[in-house]
Amino acid sequence: MADTITLGVFASGGGTNCQSIIDACEAGRIDARVGVLITNREDAGALERAANHGIDAHIVPVGKDLSEEFHAADERHVEILRDCGADLVCLAGYMRRIGSGVLRAFERAVLNIHPALLPSFKGAHGQRDAVDYGARVSGATVHFADEEFDRGPIIIQAAVPVVPGDTEDTLGARILQQEHRIYPQAIQWFAERRLKVEGRSVLLDPPSRGSYDTQGPGVIISPPLETEEA
Amino acid sequence: MADTITLGVFASGGGTNCQSIIDACEAGRIDARVGVLITNREDAGALERAANHGIDAHIVPVGKDLSEEFHAADERHVEILRDCGADLVCLAGYMRRIGSGVLRAFERAVLNIHPALLPSFKGAHGQRDAVDYGARVSGATVHFADEEFDRGPIIIQAAVPVVPGDTEDTLGARILQQEHRIYPQAIQWFAERRLKVEGRSVLLDPPSRGSYDTQGPGVIISPPLETEEA
After folding, report:
1. Which of A166, B123, B146, B152 falls between 20 and 30 A from A14, CA-CA?
2. What is the tally of structural domains in chain A?
3. What's the pTM?
4. What ipTM was assigned to the predicted interfaces of this complex?
């Protein structure tokens, strides 16, 4: 086991990814604890989840991108993250740009999850865009965040089929199931200090001991998961 | 079984996709025969494959895109395809743009295969671009061709993992294995008149009777294959 790391989680919405991270921590499946939740919205479902688990939470409105309020929020984010001793920042359905202050203070320590196989279907509607494009396979991506949306080096991807009659919601639910598997895994690899970034490539060292055999039909998780029980 | 359709196959390179189509025809796995091979290169490996199987072949140099020679070649292509009674045109590693004459004469009857999960990694180097991007999952796509490269409605996709140490060649080989499974399947669905295009979506009617269970770990083929034996 690795030393327990402290996570600062950002969420704007219902917070199911936040919940899957909390659950993985509490079940001891990953060597991490959620130190703080930060949201930009008073009505974020993630706030109730944090409260239920006794996790400190902060609502920080961010204003327009790159406005004065945005930069003040960025500074406030850094302050909150430092106060809780965060080692890693996890964007979990945080629908706003992350500030350059956070990116500098947590260099190569900010993760994001996106509901598509990047570089396909970047942006706020990954699930809908995949359906509209007529894609037959889509998925989810956990990557290091950088200054540009949905671009940083990829840690892990999960692929699932798009099936006849799929809508944004049905495909979204299928992808979400895999998001909840891969985000805790990415965090665990970070905690174990096994992620080395070389240019755009993320090297997992040593390689995953998991197997494609155990993922179930119609799913590819790459690198294979190690965090789940057989 | 459907009536046997006649294929006009275009190839520029080694022609392994051309070979997989010929093999599927000869083994009776698909209701099709290759009526003609067209290539732009005298040294195309596909020429020998055609000769080995008694398939009529034509070398048609195409010149620069949209040049006079290009348009003349486009007309010649239509003539050759009509002479052999082609029902369906299959681009199989044909590295040149297909002319608007062929696209008009064979409306919604020109297929292309691309070694990536479109819309990711369009262009001539799908395998290399996936490795360089640090993608963890890539694959192959069979789609209806239209005027723009790698854009038309998607029929079937196969996804595979990118594994540590992969190069353009090792990933390419893994993808090629799946290309050889999905291209014959797409042709068979066309022969069975089960492909209906609605905007960007291709409806397979009736849906595939195949299963994700039989594809092997680390592979997603969607819709699932029907052409292979259990």
Report:
1. A166
2. 2
3. 0.95
4. 0.94
